[in-house]
UniProtKB/TrEMBL annotation:
Keywords attached to this entry: Disulfide bond, FAD, Flavoprotein, Glycoprotein, Signal
Recorded family membership: Belongs to the oxygen-dependent FAD-linked oxidoreductase family.
GO biological process terms, semicolon-separated: cannabinoid biosynthetic process
Protein name per the record: FAD-binding PCMH-type domain-containing protein
First and last residue of the signal peptide: 1-22
Cofactors: FAD
PANTHER family: OS08G0158400 PROTEIN
Domain named FAD-binding PCMH-type: residues: 74-250
Length: 535
């Protein structure tokens, strides 16, 4: 610690040098120069700075960017990309960006719904700190823990755990290409949430670069900041370098199934029943519903197909007993059930074709990319069957609509609302995610965006109220940002309360303490109170 402080002190002394240089040099050169001054091994950095004239710039920018909407030519691009190779390079880049006044975006897995990790709509110039090369996963079975580096995907984490043990797992996202740097900062839910809670609920420690360029672990950062980074959303408090996670037990045999019913096959009645059953059923069982347009019984007729897609932490026999007792309406049979290992159930839920080898997870890549817009709701009261019957009409007005209904209850309702910044706990029956996707770029964008806003408005009577809760990991820039002054975001009804409820106030307090100059910022970052005072 003593040495670290000494090194930091000399950093600060050197910083004045680079500041004066910055006035005459192009931004990336000033940045590079600053890094060389502040990093132990000079001349290492030029190999990882990519300007827009560099042939690799686009492929690196596009590599993990998940929403094609934020790669359109009209969308601002970073002035340069820096891909650090170790923790102290991340540290140096924060120090240098701050000194040179370069606005920084931080990217781990690039799955942000509004591209906030690689696009700034509010400030120019900006740089991209891309952590894709930092992806170590060190599993320690003896202690049921793992240290995982921010650029690793959650699929890599699952794979590395399963490589060492078939009876350990981790409860986080369903989509295996998510970067854990961004994913866990917003909560991280998946098929084991009803049993074990969120990824963020199972974090034991972290290493973070704060706005002063210090590397801090849990002990050094203190419990307020450690609380804030486990659900307060990415890009507000610092750069997460590592998470230390707690592994959870999983059985040798788990069972998965997908059963689909169209409206003609009683889909609405069944979905009405699911709302009452799924949040209360055995915690080993997670049944989500994937809702998409489907083919009706008459050729050419469009209907809605509801797919009950499930993971059960146990064998098929016990699953069938649970279903017979609590959800006989689905009519699950042993033929629908697939017994498999936990890691293969991960592949199944993520949608990989049958028989895909788990090694696919090591590619750390997403399977497909589209242009999309999404939103989310938390539902606290059962939607009547009659209302379901009418909402399908609005749903089918879009040509690429998708809804995923995801049950809560179990462990989710036993963790206090203020235990982490993620507040959607007791009383939530399920979460709805709305997605509209398309492939023809700008051409049909407006049509899809308009439909999404209309459908979301249509759903408001059924959603949670005061505030209408929303999942921060499903970023939505439509939600109430008044940029006239930076205090207005603290008013109820704005995105802060909708993502975090009462926890927003504490997040603002932590932010004010750890990053008063608001170095880590984006369109919906937690604002410090100090920005209102202007010094
Ligand atoms: C196809 C798809 C499927 C999804 N499935 C799930 C799911 O099953 N469960 C779930 O909970 N969520 C899911 N999500 C949402 C996902 O959790 C969020 O988009 C999450 O923020 C992605 O993390 P990332 O590192 O990939 O994203 P990024 O775009 O890299 O980052 C997201 C945000 O975090 C910030 N950030 C990134 N890295 C760091 C870091 N190291 N330190 C500090 N801040 C950082 C970024 O600046 C940005 O604000 C899904 C998203 C997509 C696109
Ligand atoms: C692109 O940038 C990389 C990393 O800085 C560098 O190694 C490479 O030579 C550059 N290529 C071109 C064509 O400028
Ligand atoms: C619906 O029918 C079309 C044309 O027959 C087919 O291409 C498509 O795959 C079908 N969709 C579903 C969900 O069965
Ligand atoms: C609000 O905060 C942003 C940074 O997040 C800053 O650039 C802007 O100047 C602030 N606006 C006011 C009015 O203080
Ligand atoms: C910010 O705006 C709100 C509402 O318009 C107002 O009540 C408040 O006084 C403003 N704050 C500042 C610092 O201007």
């Amino acid at each position: 610690m003593q040495t670290l402080r000494f090194i930091l002190a000399s950093f600060v002394a050197l910083l004045s040098v680079s500041v004066s240089l910055s006035t005459s040099l192009p931004l990336e050169e000033a940045f590079n120069h600053c890094l060389e001054l502040h990093y132990k091994t000079p001349n290492q950095f030029s190999s990882s700075i990519y300007t827009s004239t560099n042939g690799s710039f686009s492929s690196i920018l596009e590599s993990t960017a998940q929403n094609l909407r934020y790669l359109l030519p009209s969308v601002p691009k970073p002035d340069f990309i820096f891909t650090p190779l170790d923790d102290s390079q991340v540290q140096a880049s924060v120090i240098c960006a701050k000194q040179l006044g370069i606005h920084m975006r931080v990217r781990s897995g690039g799955h942000d719904y509004e591209g906030l990790s690689y696009v700034s709509l509010i400030e120019k110039p900006f740089m991209l700190l891309d952590l894709a090369k930092l992806r170590a996963v060190n599993v320690d079975l003896a202690h049921n823990t793992a240290w995982i580096q921010a650029g690793a995907t959650i699929g890599e984490v699952y794979y590395r755990i399963s490589e060492k043990s078939s009876v350990h797992g981790f409860p986080a996202g369903l989509c295996t290409s998510l970067g854990i740097g961004g994913h866990i900062t917003g909560g991280a839910y998946g098929s084991m949430m009803r049993k074990y809670g969120l990824g963020a609920d199972n974090v034991l420690d972290a290493r973070i670069v704060d706005s002063s360029g210090r590397i801090l672990d849990r002990g050094a950062m203190g419990e307020d900041l450690f609380w804030a980074i486990r659900g307060g959303g990415g890009g507000s408090f610092g750069v997460i370098l590592w998470w230390k996670i707690k592994l959870v037990p999983v059985p040798q045999t788990v069972t998965v199934f997908t059963v689909t019913r169209t409206l003609e096959q009683g889909g609405s009645k069944l979905l009405h029943r699911w709302q009452q059953v799924a949040p209360k059923i055995d915690e080993d069982l997670f049944i989500r519903v994937i809702i998409q347009p489907g083919n009706g019984s008459v050729p050419g007729q469009r209907t809605v197909a509801t797919s009950y897609n499930a993971q059960f932490l146990g064998g098929a026999n016990r699953l069938l007993q649970v279903m017979k007792h609590d959800f006989p309406e689905l009519g699950l049979t042993s033929k629908d059930c697939v017994e498999t290992s936990w890691i293969k159930s991960v592949l199944y839920i993520a949608g990989y074709p049958d028989g895909t080898a788990p090694e696919v997870l090591l590619q750390g890549k997403s399977s497909s990319k589209v242009y999309f817009k999404a939103k989310s709701d938390f539902v606290r009261e059962v939607i009547p069957e009659k209302s379901l019957n009418t909402l399908w009409k609005v749903f089918l007005q879009d040509d690429g609509p998708l809804m995923i209904w995801n049950p809560y209850g179990g462990m989710m309702s036993r963790i206090a609302e203020s235990a982490t910044p993620f507040p959607h706990r007791k009383g939530v029956l399920y979460k709805i995610q709305y997605v509209t996707g398309w492939l023809d770029g700008e051409k049909s964008m407006e049509k899809h965006m308009n439909w999404m806003r209309k459908f979301y408005f249509y759903m408001s009577p059924y959603a949670s109220k005061s505030p209408r809760e929303t999942y921060v990991n499903y970023r939505d820039l439509d939600i109430g940002m008044n940029r006239k002054n930076n205090t207005s975001v603290i008013k109820a009804g704005s995105w802060g309360y909708r993502y975090f409820k009462g926890n927003f106030n504490r997040l603002v307090k932590v932010k004010t303490k750890v990053d008063p100059s608001n170095f880590f910022r984006h369109e919906q970052s937690i604002p410090p109170l100090a920005t209102c005072k202007k010094g």
